[in-house]
Design a protein that fits this description.
It is a single chain. Helices cover about 40% and strands about 10% of the residues. With about 100 residues, the chain is α+β, with helices and mostly antiparallel strands. The protein has a domain of about 55 residues: Membrane-bound Lytic Murein Transglycosylase D, Chain A (Roll).
Length: about 100
């Protein structure tokens, strides 16, 4: 009787492992609270002669705040690739 093997009885272990993995993934997702970023208000500024990105950021940065962070926010809000400004250009400045 070579070549004939006994059939094993199926176990529930793979099913139990799959159920445990499913719970481990879905329970944290169901119980967590989603926190959205607060909306950002913008002021519109028209660039005048002598204005620079740094000077505009300095005017809008709170005392003790980081001017470079404001510059980065202005660059991002206006999709600017460089800090070069042109007279008459309008910019969105985060408040």
């Amino acid at each position: 009787m070579r070549g004939i093997s006994k059939r094993r009885k199926p176990t529930l272990m793979p099913l139990v492992a799959l159920a445990g993995l499913s719970l481990a993934v879905t329970l944290p997702a169901l119980s967590s609270t989603v926190h959205a970023a607060p909306p950002v208000a913008y002021a519109t500024v028209t660039v005048r002669s002598g204005d620079s990105l740094w000077s505009l950021a300095e005017r809008k940065t709170a005392p003790g705040g980081d001017v470079q962070t404001t510059v980065d926010q202005i660059l991002g809000a206006n999709h600017l690739a460089s800090s070069t400004l042109h007279v008459g250009q309008t910019l969105r400045i985060p408040q």
